[in-house]
Every structure is written in structure tokens, then in C-alpha cells.
Amino acid sequence: MTCPSLKMNWMMTNTTELREALDNVQRIAIATHVDPDPDAIGSATALGLALRAMGKDIVLLCDGPPSPRSWFLPLANEITTAVPSGFEPELLVALDSSDRERLGVAAAPLLEAGIPIINIDHHVTNLQYGSINIVNVESSATAELLVSLIDALGVEITLDIARCLMAGLVGDTRAFSTPSVTPKTFAIAARLVEVGVDIADIVDRVHTRMSFDQLRLWGLALADLHLQDGVIWVSVPQQGREMLGVNRLTENGLSSLLLNAKEACVSASFIEKDGGQIEISFRARPGYNVADIALSLGGGGHALASGCTIAGPLDQAVHDVVYRLRKHVIKVSKSTGVS
Ligand SMILES: [Mn+2]
């Protein structure tokens, strides 16, 4: 049982530290995790806009381009994979990233240089790697957590900032349909709608719209669907993508789709990337936990949604990971009678 008043004080201490840390610097790097989702991009762009409103010079760092689901956000076109020469950040704000490695090569030189880090996140797997850690696992998204921080910085939540934050909320909560949604999530969403955010438009852009190529890729994956001991999975070899002419991987909601099968307790999609690395996305029904397995494989996430990237070959990766998932499902089903 957590004590609400203690928690409030803890947050206030951290936001005071945050304010002081930001007051003392001019050039700030904002970094988010590799394979960025709408919460990663929405949080980075929202904080970028807020810090710019405070008169700070910023650079937004991320490995790889934002997914097409986030391209529409203000500042998304400023996200870069390296600090521009001549810009020397004095502080690094890490967003939505459970550990330093997930910040990718974009932030690596700054981590090596040892500049102070402000770690803002909501993942239960967060390793508290910052000089200041603002980690609240009760927030449904990093974007949700950011609202009180932006308030504490005295920055007005403009329509642009609100759209970025809503994209993060809608992304991580699958349009307010996950168990992580709380009354606070709705209170924050209501505030953003009051500022003028068109929630239907954001949900459409973040969740519903899909390219024709992505649907074709799903078709290929679903043609080879497996289910064993409550574990459902698909794998897409690089060759298959080439055959379809789908070279650029967009983030995949495939693992969420798989969990629609009523026989499934956990799902996994394995996608072979260019270069042979295997990108794995996990989803679980309540009662199961795919955070631990992702973490043990060098990834991160939440109990019900996580991911990682591991070495190939694809067949071996599928074999090893499915075996571990089956063991987990069998163990949980035995201990709880869940089926
Ligand atoms: Mn998130």
C-alpha cells in the first residue's frame, strides 16, 4: 500500500530538482528509445516544445525515424540521429526509456561524456539510471507523467503540446482500453481535449490508419500462424518482406492483433530486420507477464506489452523464445487456474 501524501512529496521533490536542473542550463538534449512508439515521440516533442517555450536550445535525439504514426506531430521533423556539430548539450533528458542502452547510438556519445541525465519514464523495468529519476509506474504513458512536470515548469499547455501528449496517451493505452488507464488518465485526457485536441483525429492517426503494405505484411505473417499451450506467434523472414517489396518496417501492432485469439494468453511477433536482427513484440492478457522475458533478452516494457531485439537466426530465436513463453504460461495457468 503506498501512502498518497508521501508519494506527492516524492513527486514534488523530484519536480523541484527538475526545475533547478533545467534553470541552470541552456542547451538540452532530449532522447527517447529506439524503435520509437507514439508515446516516445509524443513525449519528446511535447517536452521539446515546452523547453523551447522556456527559451532553451534543444536537440531531439532518436535512433531511426519516428514511425509514420507520429510524423504528423509538431517537431517530429526535427528529430535527429546525432547531436549536430557545434551544439554541446549540458543536460540529457531521457524519455520513456527503461535503461541507457535503449536510448540507442543517438545518445551514446552523451552518455559516454557523462553529462547529467534526467530520467523520466513509466516502465516498471526502469533501472533508475538518471542523476534525477522521475519514474512513475502508475502513469499509463510517459506523456501522462509529463503533464504535471510541464505544469511544474510553469509552461502553458498549448494545442501543439496537447496534441503531442494525446498521441502518447492514445498510443500506450491503445485508445484508453488497457488496464493501465486510471481516473487520472481520463482527467488528463479531458484537459487536453479542453485545450482543443481532436481526439478522434489522433486515435485515427495513431491507431487506425495503416498502409496497404503493412496490411500485406500482416497477411503474409498470418498465413503462418502458430498456437501452442496458450502462446500464439508469427514470424516474418526478411525474404518474405523482400518478396512483397516491403522494405521499410513500420511498427507492428501485429502482436496485439494475435492476442484477439480467445485461445491465446500471450502473443509474440518475430520480424527479421535487415542485417538479421530479430525484432520481437510481446503482448499478454492480464495475469501473465511479458516484461521479465523482454528484460532478460535486453529489451523492456510492461507486464502486458513489451519488446526486444535479439540476434538471429530467425528459426532459433522463435524456438528459444516460444519455449520460454510456453513455460511461463504453463506456470501461471497452474498456479492461478487461469486458462
Ligand atoms: Mn510509454
Task: Please give the structural blueprint.
Layout: H1 4-23, E1 27-32, H2 38-53, E2 57-61, E3 91-95, H3 104-113, E4 117-121, E5 132-135, H4 142-152, H5 159-172, H6 183-195, H7 199-208, H8 212-222, E6 226-228, E7 231-236, H9 238-244, H10 254-258, E8 266-272, E9 278-284, H11 291-296, E10 300-301, E11 305-310, H12 314-336
Parallel strand pairs: 1-2, 1-3, 3-4, 4-5, 7-8
Antiparallel strand pairs: 6-7, 8-9, 9-11, 10-11
Bound molecules: manganese (II) ion.
Manganese (II) ion binds at residues 39, 96, 122, 141-142, 172.
The helix count comes to 12
Gap from first CA to last CA: 29 Å
Heteromolecules bound: manganese (II) ion
CATH class categorisation of the largest domain: Alpha Beta
Overall average pLDDT: 91
- CA-based gyration radius: 20 Å
Q: Superfamily at the CATH H level of the largest domain? A: inorganic pyrophosphatase (n-terminal core)
Specify the structural class: alpha/beta
Enter the CATH topology name of the largest domain: inorganic pyrophosphatase (n-terminal core)
Biggest sheet, strands in spatial order?
6-7-8-9-11-10
CATH architecture of the largest domain: Alpha-Beta Complex
Largest sheet: 6 strands, mixed
Order of helices and strands: HEHEEHEEHHHHHEEHHEEHEEH
Tell the overall outline. Answer: globular
Describe it.
With 339 residues, the chain is of the alpha/beta class. The chain has helices at residues 4-23, 38-53, 104-113, 142-152, 159-172, 183-195, 199-208, 212-222, 238-244, 254-258, 291-296, 314-336, and strands spanning 27-32, 57-61, 91-95, 117-121, 132-135, 226-228, 231-236, 266-272, 278-284, 300-301, 305-310. The two termini are 29 Å apart. A six-stranded mixed beta sheet has the order 6-7-8-9-11-10, sandwiched between helices. Strands 2-1-3-4-5 form a five-stranded parallel beta sheet, sandwiched between helices. The chain is globular, with a radius of gyration of 20 Å. Manganese (II) ion (MN) binds next to loops.
